[in-house]
Amino acid sequence: MLDRQTFDRLLSLALAHGGDFADVFCERRTSVGFRLMRGAIHETSLGITVGTGIRVLCGESAGYAYSDDLSFEALERAARTASLIARTAPSGTAGRIAVAPREIHFPYDTRHEIARDASIYVRMLERADTAARAFDPRIVAVNATVTDEVQEVWIASSDGALVHDRRPLVSFGVQVVSNTNGERGNGFHGDGGRTSLAFYDVTTPETIAREAARRAIVNLEAIPAPAGEMEMIVGAGGGGVLLHEAVGHGLESDFNREGISLYSGRVGERVASELVTIFDDGNLDEERGSIGVDDEGIPGQHKVLVERGILRGYMQDRQNARLMNVTSTGSGRRQSFRVMPQPRMCNTHMPSGESSVDEIIASTKRGIYAKSFAGGQVEISKGDFVFMVAEGYLVENGRVTAAVKNATIVGNGPDAMTKVVAVGNDARLSSRHYTCGKGGQYVPVGVGMPTVKISSITVGGTADG
Q: Which CATH number fits domain 119-155+163-222: 3.30.450.30, 1.10.3720.10, 3.30.1510.10, 3.30.2290.10?
């Protein structure tokens, strides 16, 4: 979008009043979206985003300004504004700017283009609607969405780097409602990633719709969940949401540098059962949270966060890495050019263990099997979390019995990780439809884990325990 000479002039203007580091982030994003409701296309959208953000780091503070006008005059004003903000910011401790290698790996199909024929998307939604309604006569409503985007970014920084990343992202999701005798059940399933529409030739709209319908029927037939303290089995794949929320956010470097997280200052200490290892990867092929480079120009990479229960490090962006005197882990991410990057997760997951799923179930006397979660909340400073179970089952005397509904899981992230007593040999990443919110910004992420057993958790339900 800008030539090297323009980038260099903007960086020089940004640092005119001093500063430890400056970068220029240019973005061009095109996206389309279609929503089907009640058997007809209800909503369509086309978005085109173009703009540039300029940042100056000064100690613990930063000056930032952006413009969606790409004339040099407008960008010059933004650079001077960021420079002036940085000059008036409180002085902090300047540290070495740690920079990862400049080799860039693109973990997805960068050739993907948005389809010019809108009927392609419409037909996908119609196929999903037909398949969901045909699954069971008790299906009464289908809501399906498809989005397709290509984001391109150019990042120039005062350490001499200039990088480019092209990021396709497709997503297809189906929400289904079932009903009988006034009782309702809900089911959702979605998939996609940093790939192209060819993905849905294999993982078809019909496949996604039938899985959403299956979950709606399971929840329609489910009994009220019991309440009380019991064992919990977390399902493979989608259960990774628990890992993401209850542990992952607590390992982002800003919370730890500021001493907010329970994991602050604990690198090298035991923070979980020795069965627990946690990775965050930015370079997995076609995964939703993958990046060629992060939004500060650092290549996406493999990070070992916890190894056999020992905390090995945090997810770092440039500013926090500089202040903590470590190296960026390629974790600086932002929603758009209008905001500054933050340390964020990419694809957070746990590798396989040694137990089979059958062994884990057989070892459970009384518990809940949470195959997937509908969402939740975590308090970073305490690690306390609450999660809603999207699909859950009772486990009684080593057997999976009735499906349950309206179950919530209440616990503490670090405490739950110390109670992991079995890790399955079935690790996998979840279907790719997750978006993570932090500080008012939203970015695509991936989650995953094997089947995991936690010895004790508090379950909130509407039936007697």
A: 3.30.2290.10
